[in-house]
Amino acid sequence: MENFWQACSAQLEQELTPQQFSAWIKPLTPLDYSEGKLRITAPNRFKLDWVKTQFASRITELAIQFWDDQIDVQFILDPRLNVARKPSHDLPATVDIGTSPDEVRSPEEVRPTTIIETPKRDQSRINNALTFDSFVTGKANQLARAAAIQVANNPGVSYNPLFLYGGVGLGKTHLIHAIGNQILIDNPNAKIRYIHAEQYVRDVVTAYQRKGFDEFKRYYHSLDLLLIDDIQFFAGKNRTQEEFFYAFEALIAAKKQIIITSDTYPKQITGMDDRLISRFDSGLTVAIEPPELEMRVAILLKKAKQEGVVFSDDVAFFVAKHLRSNVRELEGALRKILAYSRFHGKDITIDVVKEALKDLLSVQNRQISVENIQKTVADFFNMKVADMYSKRRPANIARPRQIAMYLAKELTQKSLPEIGELFGGRDHTTVLHAVRKITADRSKNPECNHELHVLEQTLKG
Ligand SMILES: Nc1ncnc2c1ncn2[C@@H]1O[C@H](COP(=O)(O)OP(=O)(O)OP(=O)(O)O)[C@@H](O)[C@H]1O
């Protein structure tokens, strides 16, 4: 058991950030192992719950690899440690603010009262690893990046608010931290705050409970830069929206910069007050799209290099061709590949990648089939699936069919003739025409782009 824990800890140390490792893995202790059952203790309920949701499956995976057998890994509270500790130790160690919901939050994130302090770099919650330099640019995000740089160079002047939207894991959070970092370099005394919308809602609730709205307002209204992530979480939260409205008006009037991200464009956010929606759209609204193949390859090569590993182009292309949805998924795949190759002492080849990612690849292959695309597109446009194969050509059928062909080319490995065959035996030139037409429409027409974006997100689950 001790040997396993040593190997497992060493492995997780490679895969996680130092902060994550010391906050969540270091405090764990293996308790006992017998008959395929391994028990690991955590020092408090908070860590226990977090480890169970975030790391249990990876630790189980490593245990199965280590013993080459089915292992039941159980996480339990260590009663001895629990009694010995004072309650304040129940909070996690201080770590960088998460760049995604997957990442750990600092203790202040759990205790909203501490926000009322001078926000120098620490209090700004800006993650200094997320910079423009570490952000890979491609067609999918070049507009958003250009806007972000413009805002970082002229905060409060050029585009206010800057509203960035796009699907999960596409780099919205990264980009807004990059703006924060840039502004802090130019002006280290700038009063900056990055906050996830869920945390803002919790802060409003705390202010409400403590009758502390004056303090809350004083703090938010005095910022130079407010970065608010995933604003769709405000949906249906009227008091939060009202408070945010006041903060918004105060900051814009004082020419202080506001940057907002969301999973969709302003008018599409449901449960949001109209006056807020119209204000979101009053500066510049830019989309971040899912990365195209070349960009996915560039991201993989860059991130592998950051890990000190050289990926061959073949391997990077293989991974990028199979994992198309978002950058977070690419990062996860890269971590798995590195862990697998280190654990088994194997070089990174396409075969090793196939083995390391076999679960992920089989899910991808299962999810995105041409049939699945035809059904999803037909449902979306409220038409019969049979019309995907029929010879009928009215515009209300022909266009969704072209969209389905385009998605089949984008999201599956099928060739043009194979796709034509699956669309009622059409010629490959018909498919090519559809792909070109929808590609052109997408680049010119934001509504078309949005429809496709929604369909892609639906198909990728
Ligand atoms: N263009 C990029 N170059 C380098 N890394 C990127 C890029 N885009 C995203 N990432 C990385 O991918 C991960 C996910 O990105 P991020 O958290 O910014 O996504 P998001 O759009 O905010 O997603 P969500 O809506 O789920 O919060 C992060 O680790 C981020 O650094």
TrEMBL record:
Pfam families in the cross-refs: Bac_DnaA, Bac_DnaA_C, DnaA_N
Subcellular location: Cytoplasm
Biological processes per GO annotation: DNA replication initiation; regulation of DNA replication
Repeat found in the keyword field: no
Chain intervals for the UniProt region annotation (Domain I, interacts with DnaA modulators): 1-91
Region: Domain IV, binds dsDNA, residue numbers: 342-461
Region (Domain III, AAA+ region): 125-341
Primary location: cytoplasm
Domain notes: Domain I is involved in oligomerization and binding regulators, domain II is flexibile and of varying length in different bacteria, domain III forms the AAA+ region, while domain IV binds dsDNA.
Subunit relationships: Oligomerizes as a right-handed, spiral filament on DNA at oriC.
Function: Plays an essential role in the initiation and regulation of chromosomal replication. ATP-DnaA binds to the origin of replication (oriC) to initiate formation of the DNA replication initiation complex once per cell cycle. Binds the DnaA box (a 9 base pair repeat at the origin) and separates the double-stranded (ds)DNA. Forms a right-handed helical filament on oriC DNA; dsDNA binds to the exterior of the filament while single-stranded (ss)DNA is stabiized in the filament's interior.
Family (UniProt): Belongs to the DnaA family.
Protein name: Chromosomal replication initiator protein DnaA
Underlying gene: dnaA
